[in-house]
Amino acid sequence: MKGAVRIRQARLADAEAISLIINVYAGSGLMLERAPETVVENIRNFFVAEDAGQVVGCCAIAFYTRTLAEIRSLAVQESWRLKGTGRLLVEKAEAVLQEEGVAEVFVLTLSRHFFSRLGYSEIEKEYFPQKIWRDCTRCPKLMACDETAMVKKLPVPNNTKNRYSLP
């Protein structure tokens, strides 16, 4: 029986499960495939949703500047969809980004309504040339991208304001 899902930082032992969940979506053309080795290389940027020791969902963060980051690779096993698991993963990622002082977070998504409910607004992809050069150039949909770019401003906590300023 399913219990309460728990969101936590991913561990190396989760890499295979993360890759499998993501690649179900990739097989349907919904996101880019991630090999377990690629997940291992970026494991500290992943969060997982776990139930009874089983990974049932994941997402990752990617930093572009000190104040701009992306939430990516959001994927949830079919039996855990529409139960708030994706929302919990996004909220965990946003909390970590906010703690780091990130002011804006963006997504490229096919799930506009999901992210809109979480406070994201549509924006032109051209605002994120770093993303396009880093990832989109290897995407088979590059010339006919059907994803929507969305952005959300995060409140900056007091303990990170002017964190990088000189005394």
Structural class by SSE content: alpha+beta
Uncertain runs: 162-167
Secondary-structure element string:
EHHEEEHEHEHE
CATH superfamily, by name, is Gcn5-related N-acetyltransferase (GNAT)
Number of domains: 1
Helix content: 25-40%
Cα end-to-end separation:
55 Å
Describe the strand arrangement of the main beta sheet, using strand numbers.
1-2-3-4-5-7-6
Let me know the number of strands.
7
Q: What is the CATH class?
A: Alpha Beta
GO molecular function, one term: acyltransferase activity, transferring groups other than amino-acyl groups
Protein name: N-acetyltransferase
Domain N-acetyltransferase: 5-155
Keywords: Acyltransferase, Transferase
Draw up the topology in text.
Blueprint: E1 6-9, H1 15-27, H2 36-41, E2 46-51, E3 54-63, E4 68-76, H3 85-99, E5 104-109, H4 112-117, E6 121-123, H5 129-134, E7 148-153
Parallel strand pairs: 4-5
Antiparallel strand pairs: 1-2, 2-3, 3-4, 5-7, 6-7
What does this structure look like?
- This protein has helices at 15-27, 36-41, 85-99, 112-117, 129-134, and strands at residues 6-9, 46-51, 54-63, 68-76, 104-109, 121-123, 148-153.
- The chain is α+β, with helices and mostly antiparallel strands and 167 residues long.
- The protein has a single domain, classed as 3-Layer(aba) Sandwich (Aminopeptidase), CATH 3.40.630.30.
- α3 links the parallel β4 and β5.
- The protein is globular and about 35 Å long.
- 29% of the residues are buried.
- Residues 162-167 have low confidence and may be disordered.
